[in-house]
Structure formats: C-alpha cells, structure tokens
Amino acid sequence: MTLPTSVEGVPGSRRARSVGIGRAHAKAILLGEHAVVYGAPALALPVPQLTVTASAGWSSRGGERGGLSSTMTGAPSRAVLAQVSDSLRRLTSAVERRLGVGERPHLNVVLDSTIPPGRGLGSSAATSRAVVLALADLFGRELGEDTAFELVQTAENLAHGRASGVDAMAVGASRPLLFQAGASRELAVGVDGLCILADSGTAGSTREAVELLHESFRRRAGAQEVFVHRAAQLTEAARRALTEGDAPELGSLLTHYHHLMSAADLSTERIDALVEAALRAGSLGAKITGGGLGGCVLALTQPQQAGEVIRRLHEAGAVQTWAIPLKGLDTDAY
Q1: Would you state the pLDDT for residue 75?
Q2: What is the DSSP string of 158-189?
Q3: Do 41 and 128 share a domain, yes or no?
Q4: Quick one: 147 and 192 in the same domain?
Q5: In this predicted model, what pLDDT tens digit does every residue of 125-151 receive, in sequence order?
Q6: How far apart are alpha carbons 222 and 238 in whole angstroms?
Q7: CB of 155 within 8 A of CB of 87?
Q8: What are the E-state strand segments in 247-333?
Q9: Considering its fold, how many domains does the chain have in total?
Q10: Residue 63 has what DSSP assignment?
C-alpha cells in the first residue's frame, strides 16, 4: 500500500522544505469492536469523506529551539486542545527519535480536521497519522508504512490504553480491511449498498469502555470467552456476506453485533434509539460503531431507502449523518 502523503522517492534536491503536509481519513468499524483486542477479527471501512490534514513548518515568530506549538481550525473545546497538544508533543518526540532528527528550530503544526472527536471514527489515529506524515515530509526523511503504523499505534496506546491496532491501520487504508492479531488484508466488496453514519452528538470514551468490559469479564467467569467467540462468529459471517454480496445477511449481522455490544452495557439509550429509528426506516441492519458509551451508529441500507433512513435518524436525534457507498470503497479512486 502506498502512503497517501510521504517523502518516499522524493529527490534529495527537493528535500529542503519549509512546510510538510500529511493527510489521513476517518474509519468506521463494521464488526469486531473490543473482541479484536482479544485476537478476534474486525472489519473496518475507510471513511474518505472525513479527513484531517496536518501542516508542519518552522515558526515565523521564532520561539525556543526544539519547541513546539500547535493550532487547530474550527472551534475545538479546551479539553480537546489540551489533549491534542499533549499527544502532539509526545508524538513529535517519537517521530524525531525514529527519524534521527537533531536540534531544530521551533516547530508549528496546524491541524485541519473534519472528523468529530470521541465518535469512534478514528479521530486520534487519523490525526496522529497526518502528523507523522507531515513531519516526515518536513524533515525530508523516508518513512515506510510499517514505521508509520508503529508510530501511530504507539500514540493510540497512550491515548486509549491497550489499542488493537485496527484504527492505526484503517485510517491509512484505501479499501475495507479484515484486521486480526496485528495483521490486515484488503477485502473486495460485493454488497451494493450504503453505510449511513449517524453522529449521536455524545462523545464516547474508548478507554472507559475497554475498562468497563474488562471489569465485567473479571467479575463473570467465562464471560470473555463467550463474548469473543460470538463476536468472531458474527465478524467472519459478515466478511463472507460483504465479499459475496449478501446485503440482507450483512445487515442482520450488524444488528446482532449491536445486541452483543448492548448486552455488555456498551451502548446508550440515545444510541439504541438511533438504531431503532434506522431499522424502522427500512435499514437492513444497524449498530453502534466504535468503542461505545456514545459516538455513532452505522446503518446499512439500500440506496433507494437512504433518504428516509437519514430523515428518521435526524428525527431521532442524530446531529450529523454521512453516507458511504460500499461499492465506492472497492476502488483506488481516492
């Protein structure tokens, strides 16, 4: 897989840059949340409609050598700014160590993102990837895909605790992925349908959800094995349905996975209401996507039903929706 933005193959004469650019996109998990951490497979979709661009350059205002400042477009909250600033400093240090960067001038990073944070769409992983690629571009250093993944994954572990790696991989993928035990492979898409993403307006917490589920497993003997086994069954069946073009089966499996997540107390009343609204509007299936305790709902629908599904989702409280054509992901067009 070719990096969307990197310095691979750039002639030495072009490597004295004043600005480096890196880009990444959002992702959505079809099935496999949480179980993937325990070795089960997960299915992930790239979401090219939602992107983050990082621009890294030397500060025009000077500042201390080796220092770092950052800016985000839009109107991020103080909490988001503080989290991004802290993560950015650690990530920048890790990239500089890996690339062998010595003393440097003050660095400024500008982040322009359309990925809402805390929604299970890979905002933190996409931001980290964009920054990693921007810094490599700025420093004029070659960066392989394995190294980019490793750096993003390190940032994800710091942000969320024990991260499976699926986010770090999916935010750089150009096609749907089957991810398991640290390895991934691209999948062909046989289903001609739309995945509607609906933002509940409430941020989730992957770290909190992971801890909640782990505590539940600790209290109930055998609960982990039951959850992981069922999740793996559903995900493998969904992989076959996705590649073989069985949209009704894929939709049914999505809904079954939502019930699995809900039974583990990872859903919320608002999320459940959005799932029910999507199903009543004619969706083939719907589920929470991401770590849980908030975030987004993903609904599979036929194109002719999409308008009604989107309308019902907004009536049920969705603050934003996005439509992802599955067939559109079965190409390298973007």
Answers
A1: 63
A2: HHHSS--SHHHHHTT-SS-EEEETTEEEE---
A3: yes
A4: no
A5: 999 999 999 999 999 998 899 999 999
A6: 25
A7: yes
A8: 285-289, 296-301, 320-325
A9: 2
A10: -
